[in-house]
Write a structure and sequence with these properties.
It is a single chain. This protein has 2 domains: 6-154, no CATH class; 164-362, Clc chloride channel (Orthogonal Bundle). 67% of the residues lie in helices and 1% in strands. It has helices spanning 6-45, 48-72, 93-105, 113-131, 135-147, 152-156, 172-200, 208-229, 244-248, 253-273, 280-297, 305-318, 322-336, 342-354; strands at 84-85, 368-369. It has a two-stranded antiparallel ribbon with strand order 1-2. α2 (48-72) packs antiparallel against α8, α7 packs across α11 (280-297) and α7 runs parallel beside α12. The chain starts with 5 loop residues before the first helix and ends in a 5-residue tail after the last strand.
């Protein structure tokens, strides 16, 4: 097929972008709405026997469905890899998005970012193939614009225009460095646990029994947490991006620590058992909990710790080169708290970058990774 001209390439890219961004947004809104109904609204009004039943049954059934979808179509990629940018054909997309959707709706602890990336990659693959655009370029444009859907609501509701009132204090660098190191260490240990689970059942294969057991264990941990603490089940289940404020509002370092410990366990199981989804949002939730504990315990040295924790989670999971690390620190600092918080975010980014990564056990080959992936 003849290579398209520069002008035509730009035109095709615009078409892919114009379709991928709104479609990514629609996918995100559908998933978040259904997750909210199933794991926040329903438990608030349901009696305890119903909560116990859905907490054990739904993740288990989700495990079976994810295994069947992975076996019958495209297998997708394990979240330990990060966010892989692969071509996705029209034949492959239903099984890929289906496995992600059942994982998320099942309450498993992975994020929706891969659903958007996969949708954009699918749009790019299909349109790019028909127009003769290079596959890597087409999928990159589609995935890149689809994941921008994450920023639509914050822009519309003015979150980015009201960065906060924090004033930089050099003492807070101590808290930022401590929170970044703690966040990275917790993520390291979680990856070790996930890799151990993967190796225990023979690698990232879609075994119905393993995924069902994994789903049941995730539900069981969440149920024990609910019975033991009386706090909402959604604080442990789901990726957690909608529950961060509720986590911080627990107000007690002990309560927050127990919650993020439970989240850490089910996050690790979700990756190790072979579910499909993004690794970033649960890591951000855990980092927010670590930052909240630091702020409660050492308020004179940890103001702005939330931005440091979130930045550390992003940088550790992506592990970009040093220049990109600094850029990520600047951008995330500006988004989360404004110019005054940028020094804390940069310090956190550098700490997370300096800590060694943990290689995953899935050993991907020939995969192209986007910016947010090591």
């Amino acid at each position: 097929m003849e290579t398209p001209s520069r002008g035509k390439t730009i035109g095709i890219g615009i078409v892919i972008a114009v379709i991928s961004l709104p479609l990514g947004y629609v996918i995100l809104q559908i998933l978040q709405t259904l997750i909210e109904l199933l794991w926040v609204d329903l438990p608030e009004s349901a009696p305890d026997p119903v909560i116990w039943a859905i907490t054990l049954i739904i993740p288990t059934v989700a495990g079976v469905l994810v295994a069947l979808l992975r076996r019958s179509g495209s297998d997708g990629h394990n979240p330990l890899i990060g966010i892989a940018l692969n071509p996705i054909t029209a034949k492959e997309y239903p099984s890929v998005i289906g496995a992600i959707a059942f994982t998320l709706l099942g309450g498993l602890v992975l994020g929706p970012e891969v659903a958007m990336v996969s949708t954009g990659a699918f749009i790019g693959t299909v349109i790019g193939a028909k127009a003769g655009l290079k596959t890597s370029v087409a999928t990159g444009i589609g995935a890149g614009f689809a994941i921008l859907a994450l920023f639509v609501n914050p822009i519309l509701n003015g979150s980015f225009s009201n960065p906060g009132t924090y004033q930089f204090d050099a003492r807070d660098l101590v808290g930022a460095i401590g929170v970044a190191a703690a966040t990275a260490l917790v993520l390291v240990l979680g990856r070790f646990l996930s890799i151990f689970i993967l190796r225990l059942h023979g690698g990232d294969r879609p075994k119905v029994s393993i995924l069902a057991i994994g789903g049941f264990l995730v539900g069981a941990v969440a149920l024990v947490y609910y019975i033991g603490t009386g706090h909402g089940i959604a604080l442990v289940l789901t990726s957690g991006e909608s529950e961060t404020q509720a986590l911080i509002a627990l107000g007690s370092a002990g309560a927050i620590a127990i919650t993020i410990a439970a989240k850490w366990v089910v996050y690790s199981i979700s990756m190790g058992a072979g579910f499909r989804g993004g690794p970033f949002f649960p890591a951000i939730y855990i980092s927010a909990g670590i930052a909240a504990i630091a702020t409660l315990q050492t308020p004179d040295y940890a103001q702005g710790a939330l931005a440091a924790g979130i930045t550390a989670a992003f940088v550790y999971l992506s592990h970009p080169k040093i220049v990109a690390t600094i850029v990520m620190g600047i951008v995330l600092g500006l988004i989360i708290g404004g110019p005054q918080i940028v020094p804390l975010a940069i310090a956190a980014a550098l700490v997370a970058k300096l800590l060694p990564t943990v290689k995953d056990a899935t050993k991907p080959t020939g995969e192209q990774l986007i910016t947010l992936v090591r």
